[in-house]
Amino acid sequence: MTTIELASDADRTAIEGLLAGAGLPLDGLELALGTAVVARGPEVIEGCAAVEPYGSYGLLRSVCVAVDLRGTGMGHRLVEAAEKLAASRGIAELYLLTETAEAWFPRLGYLPATRDQVPAALTGSPEFTDACPQSAAVLHKRL
Ligand SMILES: CC(C)(COP(=O)(O)OP(=O)(O)OC[C@H]1O[C@@H](n2cnc3c(N)ncnc32)[C@H](O)[C@@H]1OP(=O)(O)O)[C@@H](O)C(=O)NCCC(=O)NCCS
Predict the structure, then answer these.
(1) Tally of CB atoms within 10 A around 87
(2) CATH number for 20
(3) Does the beta carbon of 74 sit less than 6 angstroms from any atom of ligand 1?
(4) Does residue 71's CB lie within 6 angstroms of at least one atom of ligand 1?
(5) pLDDT the model gives residue 112
(6) Residue pair 85/51 in contact by the 8 Å Cβ criterion
(7) Strand, coil or helix: what is 34?
(8) Tens digits of per-residue pLDDT, 99-137?
(9) Of 97, 64, 99, 69, whose CA–CA distance to 82 is shortest?
């Protein structure tokens, strides 16, 4: 059975493996590990989602599901769990950058935004400054 749980320090290597396998950035991951969830399967970590906290704003990142488990609703469950965790930590709005899932996040209530709309607190994060190209889509959700 798979459960969605708060990530622990011991999950870091598995999370990095998932992200690297999907071509997602590892830059700044340490900023988000305290606000991350994993899908813990009987043997391995099957998925993850994380939030970099910046006061009442958060950067949703590192949403990833193991290739053979995609399309089973796990991505949806991971994002919902990450949102719940973020809200419990006082985060009211989430932004994200994506090159691969611009059409998927609107299913979860995320709306397109422009870089100009992103609060300054987030634009200094490694994803904005280094990891994601200017062409990455920006999406936003008020929790
Ligand atoms: C994007 C991702 C997290 C979705 O997880 P998932 O568990 O497959 O998603 P769900 O099962 O909740 O939803 C599946 C539905 O979304 C659609 N979908 C999945 N990935 C999509 C994408 N990248 N773009 C558009 N639609 C997508 C599926 O076709 C499916 O549609 P259906 O319900 O009409 O059949 C997963 O595909 C993944 O890990 N991708 C690689 C990493 C990535 O791109 N992460 C996002 C950037 S942070």
Answers:
(1) 14
(2) 3.40.630.30
(3) yes
(4) yes
(5) 97
(6) yes
(7) helix
(8) 999 999 999 999 999 999 999 999 988 888 877 777 889
(9) 64
pLDDT at residue 98, as a whole number: 94
Whole-structure pTM over 0.90, yes or no? yes
Structural domain count of the chain: 1
How many degrees, rounded to 5, is the angle at CA 39 between CA 34 and CA 41? 130
Domain span holding position 45: 3-142
Take atom 31 of ligand 1 and give the residue whose Cα is closest: 71
Q: Enumerate helices (H) and strands (E) in the chain, giving the number of each.
A: 4, 7
SS3 label, residue 17: helix
Q: Which residues contact 8 (CB under 8 A, 6 or more apart)?
A: none
Residue with tokens 């999370």: 15
Q: Which atom of ligand 1 is nearest to the CA of 70?
A: 8
3-class state of residue 9 by DSSP:
helix
